[in-house]
Design a protein that fits this description.
Largest sheet: none
Number of strands: 0
Oligomer: single chain
Strand content: under 5%
Helix content: over 70%
Structural class: mainly alpha
Number of helices: 17
């Protein structure tokens, strides 16, 4: 055979061998890479099972991830390798990289079975809460909204979306989320639904200031509470509940004239509120007879209506002693 023809045949054989071997090696390598990575991850779970947690600082986990990433060099869109890397980073609590791999897995056509859905929800919730704690409400909202888009049954993500919109002062946007959460009997949903509806009804500033007053009141800080309630009425002069609490605290602070003014507003805004009319009567009586006398008299009246006659008699006597003008009223009672 002529020399040049022999050389040409040998060259062709070499090319066929190289390309054929490359193709076979690519398929085999992809399969072997994933199998090797999975074996390393299984070994890591066994070796480090007594550790407080799994970590990238543990050698076998590092090797498993490195092998998995070599697999992606062969095929960046292989769903099986992407899911392996997503699950592995989830196992070692490397949340941000786990999240990225889960999204790449979905973009590559992967589907969420029950286990994958739970892992993705856990990773997204961790990242969302971390952004929330850092004060990055927009960042937190991004994670929770993506979780809810991927799984509308995720009630925890639903609650967080409602809460973040509520805290951002966007009650109209928050409302449908809280309605749905309340329909699912989610924890805290009824409270936030009422708060959201109140923000819409009276305004965000008035509602938030009012609830600052409620918190101060329950902490025993009456002066601070009163200041919040009064500011709430200035934000919205039709906010009957804020006027009612203003009147209540003024009565507790023995300031009947200020209480009369507040309760008059409540009666004007809610004419059918018998309770408001009662407290207006009490406040006016305190102005006319003195705080001690009027308080004792109305306490006695309440006990009398409950059939506690002896106790009522004692309170009427205290009222008469505090203000002799009540003597005729008490005697006739």
């Amino acid at each position: 055979m002529p020399r040049f023809r022999l050389v040409l045949c040998l060259c062709c054989l070499c090319l066929v061998s190289v390309f054929g071997l490359g193709a076979a090696q690519s398929v085999t390598t992809a399969r072997d890479v994933l199998a090797r990575a999975q074996q390393l991850a299984d070994d890591a779970r066994v070796r480090y099972r007594d550790s407080d947690s799994f970590s990238i600082d543990q050698e076998l986990w590092r090797e498993a991830i490195a092998v998995g990433e070599r697999g992606l060099e062969l095929d960046p869109n292989d769903p099986d390798i992407l899911r392996f890397l997503a699950e592995t980073h989830t196992s070692i609590d490397w949340h941000i990289r786990a999240w990225d791999y889960w999204l790449r897995y979905l973009n590559a056509g992967g589907s969420l079975d029950r286990e994958a859905r739970a892992q993705l929800a856990g990773v997204g919730a961790e990242l969302g809460y971390a952004r929330y704690q850092a004060g990055d409400l927009a960042g937190a909202l991004g994670y929770y909204e993506r979780l809810y888009d991927l799984n509308p049954d995720d009630t925890d993500a639903l609650r967080w979306i409602g809460r973040i919109y509520f805290e951002r002062g966007e009650p109209a946007t928050a409302l449908p989320y809280w309605r749905e959460a309340a329909a699912r009997d989610a924890e805290g949903a009824d409270y936030y639904l009422r708060r959201t509806e109140q923000q819409i009804a009276v305004g965000v500033n008035a509602s938030d200031t009012f609830h600052q007053g409620i918190a101060a009141y329950h902490a025993g800080e009456l002066e601070a509470a009163l200041g919040h309630f009064e500011r709430a009425t200035r934000y919205n002069d039709s906010f009957a509940e804020a006027f009612a609490w203003t009147g209540r605290v003024n009565l507790e602070l023995s300031r009947p004239a200020a209480a009369v003014s507040a309760w008059q507003q409540v009666v004007a805004l809610t004419p059918s509120d018998d309770g408001a009319r009662y407290f207006l009567d009490v406040a006016e009586a305190q102005c006319d007879w003195g705080v001690d006398a009027a308080t004792a008299f109305y306490d006695g009246l309440s006990r009398y209506n409950e059939g506690r006659i002896a106790e009522a008699s004692e309170r009427f006597a205290e009222a008469a002693q505090a203000n002799l003008q009540l003597y005729d009223i008490v005697s006739s009672a």
